[in-house]
Write a structure and sequence with these properties.
The chain is mainly alpha-helical. It contains ten helices and four strands, in the order αααβαααββααααβ. The strands form two sheets. Strands 1-2 form a two-stranded parallel ribbon.
Length: about 220
């Protein structure tokens, strides 16, 4: 080790020793001050408590509920809420008339699901069956089972598409028809005249189940 390295090592060692001494001194003084503070303040606080009249505490205007009382009150409040919800859904509401605000007020239906139900209903043109709620995105089977008894479809579909005159864009916006269905209907109309909505079942290659979804939402306007 060179002379310069020995000097640097010595300076570092001395610096560490000085720093350690300063920290030890500070820690000792802090403990001493804390001890003096506790010796002075604790007796003073105890003397203050001994002179404070107990009657003043007893006369203070506040109520103190025990844990059992609070739990009982919470149970009663929960029972009232459950009873209110039961009374609220112990009826059948028209699924094609209720708005999103009312749907949000029902249990098991939050604001997002209420908005999706109303949006799906608008795109369809109305529900013809309450079971169509199962096609709303984001609804769970147990949730669907719970809310189905609360609704009825009323008069059913309130807006139908003209199968013989609606534009391709109008047809493709319908959730059940889509792009492919709109293209098939438009292609058939260019070559044939629709005399009945049921003509689409034979002319357009669709399944019976898909046609049953289409049929409530289609009508003839020009040919009728």
């Amino acid at each position: 080790m060179s002379a310069e390295q020995r000097v640097v090592s010595f300076v570092v060692l001395v610096s560490w020793l000085i720093w350690g001494g300063v920290m030890a001194y500070s820690w000792t003084n802090a403990n001493a001050r804390a001890h003096v503070y506790s010796e002075q303040m604790v007796p003073s606080f105890l003397d203050f408590l001994s002179e404070f009249p107990l009657e003043t505490v007893q006369d203070m205007p506040f109520e103190s509920l025990s844990r059992n009382q609070q739990k009982a009150n919470g149970t009663r409040d929960g029972s009232r809420v459950a009873q209110r919800d039961t009374e609220q859904v112990n009826r059948s509401y028209n699924l094609n008339e209720v708005d999103s605000v009312f749907l949000e007020s029902l249990p098991r239906i939050g604001p997002k699901l209420a908005g999706r139900i109303c949006r799906f209903r608008e795109l369809l043109g109305g529900f013809y069956s309450v079971e169509q709620l199962g096609e709303v995105w984001g609804i769970y089977p147990d949730q669907l089972e719970a809310i189905l008894p609360w609704f009825h479809p009323g008069d059913g579909v309130y807006q139908k598409l003209c199968a013989d005159s609606a534009s391709w864009d109008e047809l493709r916006r319908h959730p059940y028809i889509g792009f492919q269905g709109a293209r098939r209907i438009e292609r058939y109309r260019l070559q044939h005249q629709l005399n009945a909505v049921s003509d689409l079942l034979d002319a357009v290659p669709i399944s019976d189940s898909l046609y049953r979804c289409w049929e409530p939402y289609l009508r003839l306007c020009i040919s009728s």
